[in-house]
Here is the input.
Amino acid sequence: MIMVSVAFINPLSDDGKQIVREMGSLEGVSDINEELIDAVIQTKSQEISDDDVVPQTYFDFALRRIEWYIKKKNDKKFNYKKYTFLLNDNILKFDVIAFYLLCQAIAIKFGPNSRESRVMVESQGELIENRLGELSKADRKDLVTLMLNSLISYSSIKWTFFEDLLSSRKLNLQDLILDNGEIILDKEEFVERFSDRIEHRDPGKMFDLMIGDRIKELILIRMIMQNTENYMQTVHEKSGREIEPNPVLLELADKVSDVLSASAQSYGYGGSFASDTKASPLNPKAFPPCVKKVLEGMKSGGRNDAIILFLTPFISYARLYPSVFSENISKRVSDVDPNLAALQNEILPMIFGAADRCNPPLFEDQPQEKVNINAKMGFGMHETLELKDEGETIWYTPMSCEKVKIHLPSLCKPDADCKKIGNPLTYYNRKKRMVKKEESQNESPNES
Ligand code: SF4
Here is the structure.
């Protein structure tokens, strides 16, 4: 028998819904709850050194859930022991209620396409992965199989069943094993279908090695993430028909937003480990020769690549996430520019200006290339740049000097500051510091 409740992994399961029904109403979600405090304190290895660490109310608990994900993702000094209770299934009831509170609050206030919504869905996926990681190998396998069987009722499914997951990029086709358009999740079925096509290898072992439990787990996690997103969509649609949203939920939504904004300040706009390369308005005086050349407008070959593959990643990272190479943590544009204000008002005008100065102007003969600019910043292949599409493509990091020299050799006319750097972005970060120092010395010559 598996020792952990299904609702601890999937709050949207029947068990999870039953917990919500028993709770009845939102009354008391902001009150101090001794049972909750006790469950947290009793968690093995849980740090309880200061009061802020222990959630006191359902409300606190919900915010800790989001905080855990944000800190785990961004903070190199993240202290796991402050959040150990999130992996303790004794907190099941509080966890399920917190999940519903968060989904409803975010869906009502911000809608399903918001950054808050995305963080909620991602944090649920991350929690499931971590909770499964706490189980023994056998329990983990049994639980995943049990849950998948309740979510999918047959072992080989047409891939179109996963359409939502595939189209929202929560699952990649290459993660799945397909045979005649059917996904194979069962070992026996895999052996039966593939044994005559596999030579010199044991098909059963191959299944374990290549697919086995990992894919099942991945599908389970992605399905629950997708269902969480769908649930928020439904709540959002229903809320449009209601007269007055519950003020408790609106308050929680605002607090979630505060947590995300604080994290953008700490980790996005120059956090503790990025103090020397904070995001700040662009300083064209610090641009390397290659960037200056593209900004003047490309007069001969390489126009499209120079604007789309070279300039777009450079300008967007230089403005929003200049420490990408030293931090080595992948981010989305909205992690550092939540309302896309810098993107719309500073980055795109600079890229479009350079595109207009080309001969011939880029969008005059190829207006469809705007889609590629959006795609390179992570917003998919769409004509308009919208938060809901973010994540469909990846935010391209700036090209290295080596690649510039190979693919766009006419751009590279190194100056003295190009020595010892490997990427135009590194050039920019260094030169920006130098320019700032020079400017402050010129402003107050007597102080130096
Ligand atoms: S060396 Fe690098 S930074 Fe300098 S011009 Fe060439 S590509 Fe640009």
